[in-house]
Fold this protein.
Amino acid sequence: MHTMVSPRASAPSQAPYARVKTHLKRGLASGRWPPGALMPSEAELVAEFGVSRMTVNRAIRELQAEGLVVRSQGVGTFAAPLHRVSSTLTIRDLQEEIQSRGHHHHAEVHLQCAEPAPLALAAQLGVAPGSAVFHTLIVHFENGVPLQCEDRYVNPACAPAYLQADFTRTTPTHVLFETTALWRAQYSLEAARPTAQEARLLRIGADDPCLIVVRRTFTRDAAITIARLVHPGMRYVVEGSFTP
């Protein structure tokens, strides 16, 4: 089962990493690589698609995060056993998604700093209470319309240079894709009203329904980030497909 949160528009083209990922997912779905089978190496995919190793690595890491492949260092990438395939939301870079539709993305950064972690947040990120965590609050726009309010905390041990990024030119998702070893993710999804601050930043009414995703990602050994992603309900739809 594949579930996706996306704006109410379809992308006419795919980013290079997405083309590689789609090729591999189709092969897995068709049985070209049955569970446990060795899949093409990064070098083979680089040659086949004419893209960088970083691009191929990102495609494989996303498949790994979705539970569709297993990577063994020094050995290769294998099709995951069937019990590893589960319902999942896809982690997508919003800037790339917007630009793939030929639209303009820009971001307003309202907060970018280190803060002491209160007890509940420290437990979620697996850090000591009161220790420093990175905090960003960013609103993403598509063609001038607020599309997402992203309130994110990051474990400094996983991404020590996170606060050095220019988030008017890149996104937290892109930075964390490129600098961390994403292993798995947890999600919750609900329809709810925004907070007063979120309503103001998204330029919507206090009672307007929103689609709210809370996402936590992990390396093999540690929590990377927890993010609250708030989308005006009239601008987003949940889509999905199921393959038995």
Remarks:
- Residues 16-30 form the longest helix (15 residues).
- The radius of gyration is 18 Å.
